[in-house]
């Protein structure tokens, strides 16, 4: 009888172990599917972003992380010529970083993201404090359009890229759903982001007057 009881107890333990393993497998499978679904959702919302490694970014000498979600997005322009394709835009973004690091003595490129005629380029990226507008860096994301938009009109694709980047920020929890959108000239004495780009910024549903 003792041997029979031990056998029964052993089978009961084995059943429990098998049941626990099955539960763990189901949970893991659900978690993986959830992560895959989240990644697919992000890919469908977020624009294609050309990463730092793809444009040959130099290493940052210092990183200050930002509390998220952020409540404010500030639009700038870089002035100068407009880049016409991905290759020339990569060179321009690298040039901006070089100027910011070597001439300004900053740790990295000052903008979180930059936008060319059709694509988004990763600057310092999400949840990092930039150096794009004194007094506003810690609680904002800085997005710079490549070119001089006192002279140039932003392309429809660049404006669409901005819209998708902002939607992406909300979806990722980097921006509050009711984030405020400003042109840099609203907050500081500057002509950035240029009158032709600023006219489009003012048409955005999240554009906000500084006093609001």
What labels would you give this structure?
single chain; 44% helix; 6-stranded mixed sheet
In words, what does this structure look like?
The chain has 212 residues and is α/β, with parallel strands linked by helices. Helix content is 44%, strand content 15%. The chain has a six-stranded mixed beta sheet with strand order 1-4-3-5-2-6.
Give the gist of this structure.
This protein has 212 residues and is α/β, with parallel strands linked by helices.
**DSSP, total strands:** 6
Structural class call reads alpha/beta
Spell the H/E element sequence: HEHEHEEEHEHH
Our Rg estimate from Cα atoms comes to: 24 Å
Helix content: 40-55%
Query: How far from one another are the termini?
Result: 82 Å
Uncertain parts = 32-38
**Overall 3D shape:** elongated
Helices and strands, with pairings:
Blueprint: H1 2-45, E1 49-50, H2 52-55, E2 70-77, H3 86-103, E3 113-115, E4 120-122, E5 140-145, H4 156-171, E6 175-183, H5 184-187, H6 195-201
Parallel strand pairs: 1-4, 2-5, 2-6, 3-5
Antiparallel strand pairs: 3-4
């Amino acid at each position: 009888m003792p041997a029979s009881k031990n056998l029964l107890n052993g089978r009961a333990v084995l059943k429990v172990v098998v049941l626990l393993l099955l539960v763990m497998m189901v949970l893991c499978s659900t978690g993986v599917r959830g992560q895959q679904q989240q990644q697919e959702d992000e890919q469908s919302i977020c624009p294609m972003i050309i990463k730092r490694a793809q444009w040959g970014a130099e290493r940052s000498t210092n990183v200050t992380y930002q509390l998220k979600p952020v409540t404010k997005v500030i639009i700038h322009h870089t002035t100068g010529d407009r880049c016409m394709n991905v290759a020339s835009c990569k060179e321009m973004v690298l040039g901006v970083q070089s100027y910011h690091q070597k001439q300004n003595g900053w740790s990295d490129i000052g903008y979180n993201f930059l936008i060319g005629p059709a694509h988004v380029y990763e600057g310092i990226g999400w949840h990092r404090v930039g150096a794009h507008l004194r007094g506003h860096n810690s609680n904002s994301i800085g997005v710079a359009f490549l070119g001089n938009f006192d002279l140039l009109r932003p392309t429809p694709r660049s404006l669409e890229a901005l819209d998708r980047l902002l939607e992406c920020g909300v979806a990722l929890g980097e921006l509050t759903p009711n984030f405020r959108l400003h042109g840099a000239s609203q907050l500081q004495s500057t002509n950035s982001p240029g009158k032709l780009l600023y006219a489009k910024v003012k048409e955005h549903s999240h554009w906000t007057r500084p006093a609001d």
